[in-house]
Amino acid sequence: MIKKISFLLLIISVFFISCGHQHSRDGIWRGELQVQDQQAPFLFELKGTQSDSASATLINGEEKVELTGVSLRGDTLLIPIDAYDAYITAIISNDKMEGRFIKNYIENDSGVPFRADFHTKNRFEVKDKQPANNIEGKWDILFISENGDTTKNVGIFKSANGIVTGSVLTRSGDLRFLEGAYTKKGVELSAFSGLSPYYLQFTFSGANNFEGYFYTTRNKTKLVATRNDKAGLSDPYNIAKMKQGVSSLGFSLPNLEGRQVSLQDERYKGKVVIVSILGSWCPNCLDEAEFLAPWYKANKQRGVEIIGLGFERKDDFEYSKATLNRLKTKYGIEYDVLFAGKADPEGVAKVLPEVENFSGYPTTLFIDKKGNVRKIHTGFTGPATGLFYEDFKKEFNVLIDSLLAE
């Protein structure tokens, strides 16, 4: 009898342990975030969901964004997105999840509806036959707002096996690593690297023209495009300028240890200095930091310095110290990053009254050995832009070499 009771207790224990055991959710998921009346799809991979070191990776073509600190407690998933002070939370039921994408810096944010399916690896349903038109190459793309204002941007795309990748260049940067496909609707592309979901849908009106829409959580913008192998933006060095009769900058701001820093400090005297106007919340600023951090380590002994001026979501030093330190840690930044205030036009004008026509983050100022601002570059064309990124790096190095040689 005792043996039978012990055996029964063992069976009951195994039953409860197995019922309480959390099934692994590791693998590829296809997520969707609501953008206006559409859904912006993206792929992400969960790893280690049965351990205390779970992670998620956002996948956009060549881009892989790893997110740590992921937790799965029962059927509740939490994915922190520290770089953008946001998170995804969802309830998992079988092979589906539903929840919200929430931004911490927005008070009482209701979030963006989110859902996902397990082991669904196709971002879009790929068209089953060869498309009549091809999107590969460069395009002039007009963005037309609801009130009729137009902005000229540049698209650069490539395709293989029905999958389309590329990006769109704007004055302030680019739309990240877009990934999509030829579909029954035409061409569909999307991206989500942690800040804002993007969804673009194009329909061809001939071999060299397409129309469509660009969706974000805030806006729906009409697009009209024409193929142009020589497409390019206006010169990014001719947008922001120094005011007439002014040649140097006079800011004095605290670094993340609270010490005031200015260009008059001994560290910067007689050196070429790069000043980057940035925000830890700005995807193109992160691309620039990813380029500048290793570049600085390799070149600082040549007599060049970098200063980052961080304009953050809040005019709060302790909050911004945390967000900017995360930026420094993520990219291994060894140069000074200063807290410059809240990210708004008035804030930039207050800190840099010498500069006019500031129009976007990042904006980068190049200062010669005498302390004079020689050039100002608006925006940053990141690695998603392919040849445009390679051209930028060449121009950047030529400019620095010329200033160091003076």
Describe the structure.
With 406 residues, the protein is of the alpha+beta class. 19% of the residues lie in helices and 43% in strands.
Which labels suit this protein?
globular; 406 residues; eight-stranded antiparallel beta barrel; alpha+beta
Task: Please give the order of strands in the largest beta sheet.
Answer: 1-2-3-4-5-6-7-8
Based on secondary structure, the structural category is alpha+beta
**Amino-to-carboxy terminus distance:** 96 Å
Low-confidence spans: 1-21
**Tally of DSSP β-strands:** 26
Largest sheet: 8 strands, antiparallel, barrel
Fraction of residues in H or I helices: 10-25%
- Tell me what portion of residues adopts beta-strand conformation: 35-45%
Mean pLDDT: 92
Radius of gyration: 25 Å
Count of discrete alpha- or pi-helical segments spanning 4 or more residues: 5
Shape: globular
What's this model, at a glance?
19% of the residues lie in helices and 43% in strands. The chain is α+β, with helices and mostly antiparallel strands.
SSE topology sketch:
Blueprint: H1 2-20, E1 27-35, E2 38-47, E3 54-60, E4 63-73, E5 76-81, E6 86-93, E7 96-103, E8 112-118, E9 137-144, E10 150-160, E11 163-170, E12 173-174, E13 178-183, E14 186-191, E15 198-204, E16 209-215, E17 220-227, E18 241-242, E19 252-254, E20 260-262, E21 272-278, H2 283-299, E22 304-312, H3 317-331, E23 336-342, H4 345-351, E24 355-356, E25 363-367, E26 373-378, H5 387-405
